[in-house]
Structures are given as structure tokens and as C-alpha cells.
Hints:
Layout: H1 3-6, E1 9-12, H2 16-27, E2 32-35, E3 47-50, H3 52-61, H4 64-70, E4 76-81, E5 87-92, H5 95-101, E6 106-109, H6 110-122, E7 127-130, E8 135-141, E9 144-149, E10 154-157, E11 159-162, H7 169-174, E12 181-193, E13 206-210, E14 214-221, E15 226-234, E16 242-246, H8 248-254, H9 260-267, E17 272-279, E18 287-288, E19 291-293, H10 308-325, H11 330-359, H12 363-374, H13 378-389, H14 393-396
Parallel strand pairs: 1-2, 1-11, 2-7, 4-13, 11-19
Antiparallel strand pairs: 3-6, 4-5, 8-9, 9-10, 12-15, 12-17, 13-14, 14-15, 16-17, 18-19
Helix pairs in contact: 2-6, 2-10, 3-10, 10-11
Bound molecules: flavin-adenine dinucleotide.
Amino acid sequence: xxxxxxxxxxxxxxxxxxxxxxxxxxxxxxxxxxxxxxxxxxxxxxxxxxxxxxxxxxxxxxxxxxxxxxxxxxxxxxxxxxxxxxxxxxxxxxxxxxxxxxxxxxxxxxxxxxxxxxxxxxxxxxxxxxxxxxxxxxxxxxxxxxxxxxxxxxxxxxxxxxxxxxxxxxxxxxxxxxxxxxxxxxxxxxxxxxxxxxxxxxxxxxxxxxxxxxxxxxxxxxxxxxxxxxxxxxxxxxxxxxxxxxxxxxxxxxxxxxxxxxxxxxxxxxxxxxxxxxxxxxxxxxxxxxxxxxxxxxxxxxxxxxxxxxxxxxxxxxxxxxxxxxxxxxxxxxxxxxxxxxxxxxxxxxxxxxxxxxxxxxxxxxxxxxxxxxxxxxxxxxxxxxxxxxxxxxxxxxxxxxxx
Length: 404
Ligand SMILES: Cc1cc2nc3c(=O)[nH]c(=O)nc-3n(C[C@H](O)[C@H](O)[C@H](O)COP(=O)(O)OP(=O)(O)OC[C@H]3O[C@@H](n4cnc5c(N)ncnc54)[C@H](O)[C@@H]3O)c2cc1C
């Protein structure tokens, strides 16, 4: 092992992005210390969609097998009109899709994805994982980084990666742009045993019911044992808040104009968890010396392209490649990494907002949307996804860098 690789990199945050970063660096032979504020390394929440682009990263990280064992591979992406109840469009995810993108589209429970990453990290003797440690102070000192946690524990490392999510402390040190802004959209999420899902809606598809300032998504999880339901509506009633229990009254009010199947599905859920959606406008610079950001800390986005976690995992692979290419010159590596990533992640941030408008359109905009989507062929649809789902050669070509 080269000397620089034995000096640990510190990763703040043990979510999907932080664990992926630790794994990517460890696969390249770099020692890592992950520091997580929660008492356990654990994900809560519900389902997550995985575009083909992230499967290239799973290949790089050696995770295709465990992920595939826990994922559902849906047959179609379907958009329904939640007022008329009619299908607007569908994109088959079978042979033609896989042939075009060389990878599948999948659905997975967020806890399962996190568990796969965590087990891979635990299996590496280059990764240390500390829970119950909230980072409150970071000092960059000449050739290294000093970190202090709320409980008074100190860590030293060669560099620091802030993978501490939407409310990132490290972002305030590096960028200092205050709290993220609520987007005026609320998400309610729930997971239902398949036996409780009405039989006619037990589709092996990712289904999105688009409505006026609302939408509902459902899809199967855990090899079909569960169904994930996500209801989104516009509301400015909430300033902040995350992962609290959602009051169904406002949800039912907002969905009052939707068709009977949508209302029936919403009525199936007794207990929803609520997220107040926030994002930030894209930025170009999220590194300072030996400190950088990754995932939601760097480029938080609305979930409408289902790519936040996928982007965090792409970041992780890119970052490890750049660290290896720079031979441990972290300041140079972090600049190269942000340069390689900001246009791609910025595009996803911007397009996620556009897709939100698109899903929630009313009047002429909605008619145009439905007309345009209905007249599109599956090939046209896939061509439109190429920028997002297609192979990012600079991420897949770096494979050699992972040989320690
Ligand atoms: C409703 C919804 C649906 C979504 N659907 C999808 C989808 O289908 N596909 C997809 O790819 N993405 C999706 N996303 C986005 C995805 O969930 C996030 O982008 C992803 O989880 C970000 O991972 P992260 O590791 O950057 O941040 P996080 O998951 O937020 O992890 C940050 C970690 O840092 C820890 N931390 C924070 N501060 C400190 C500190 N000071 N010290 C120590 N630890 C700290 C936190 O406890 C946490 O564990 C969705 C998001 C939402 C809200």
C-alpha cells in the first residue's frame, strides 16, 4: 500500500453517499473513517428507484449480485392521468431498454440498499465505522484535517468528505450558503404489505398517477412482498420538518379531484410519514482545500427524477478515481472531482424541478404533456433518457483505479 493510502480519509455521514464513498475509496486501497451522528448505521424510509446509470457504479463496487438479490426489476414505467384514470404513456423496461442502456431499471427498499453498502464496508479492513458521533468542528491544518464531535471525540485524517446530507454542517464550512429552501412540495410515504394492495393494482411496474399539483406513485418492493406508495402535493403550510407523521386530512383534500382508484389507494394507508421537500440551486464549487462534499450535501435535488441516491453513488466512484489519479493530492483531486461532476448533477437538479412541473401540470400544459407523451415511441422516450441513464464513460473507464 502506498504511504498516502494508509493515512485515513474522514467521511462525515454514514448514509448511502457516505458508505458508497468509503467503499469506493477502500476498493482503491485508501483507509477511511466514517463518522455518523445517529446511534446506528441505519436507513429508514421506503422505496428507492435505481436507474441503469447507478448499476454501472454497482459493477465498479462489486455489488451487482447483492443488490440484484434484493431488488425488483419492474416491467414498465407507466404514467396515468389521475383525473381521467387513463394511461398516458408507458416505457417498457425489457430487452430493448436493457440493450440500449446495458443495465436494468430496479426498485429497492432504501434500508436494503443501505444494508448492502454497510455489509460491504464492514467486510473491508480499511473502513472504520463510528456511530453516535455528531461532527461539530472541522479544522484544516497544513497537511491534514482535525475533526471534533459533540461528545468531545477527536479524529485526524488526510482529508474530509462531507456526506452529511441536505442539512449538511460541512457545507456551511465549505460553501456557507445557509439552510436549503422548502420547495413548497410535500411528500407522504408509506409501505403496504402486498396482501393489502387492491389486486387490480398489484402491477410489477413503476406507476405514476399525474394530477394537478399532486401525484401518486406506487411500485413493488422486496421481491414483491411490499408496495411502496408516495403521494406528493403542493403546499406552503410547512416551513421545515422531516420524517414526521403526516396528517391525512390535508392529503385527502389535495387529492379530492383525482379519480376513484387513486383515492382508494390513498385510503389504504393509515399511517404516512411526511417529508417537506427542499433543494438548492446548483453550484460549481463545493471543495475547499482538503475538504469536499458529496451527495445531498453537495447538490440536493427534488426526487422527481429519482436520482439523488444514484448521483451520490456516482459521486463516490468519481471521487475515488480522482483521489487515486492525483496520487493522494487531495486538494487537486477534490477540484478535479467537482469539475467532473457539477454539470451532470446540476442538470439533474434543474431537470428534477422541470419534471415536478410536468407531473403536476394543469389546463393547456397538461393537455400538451399528455399529447406529447402519447405520441412518443419507446425509442423516442429512451433517446430522451440517454443523457441520464447512458453509460458515463469516464466513470466506467476508471475501473483500473480500483486495483489497490
Ligand atoms: C421522497 C424521496 C424520494 C426519493 N427517491 C429517490 C429515488 O427513487 N432514487 C434516488 O436515487 N434517490 C431518491 N431520493 C433521494 C435520496 O434519498 C437522497 O438523495 C440520498 O439519500 C442522499 O444520500 P446522502 O448520503 O447524500 O445523504 P443522507 O441520506 O441524508 O445521509 C446523510 C447522513 O449524514 C449524517 N449526518 C448529518 N450530519 C452529521 C454530522 N454533523 N455528523 C455526523 N453525521 C451526520 C446523517 O445522520 C445521515 O446518516 C429520494 C428522496 C426523497 C426525499
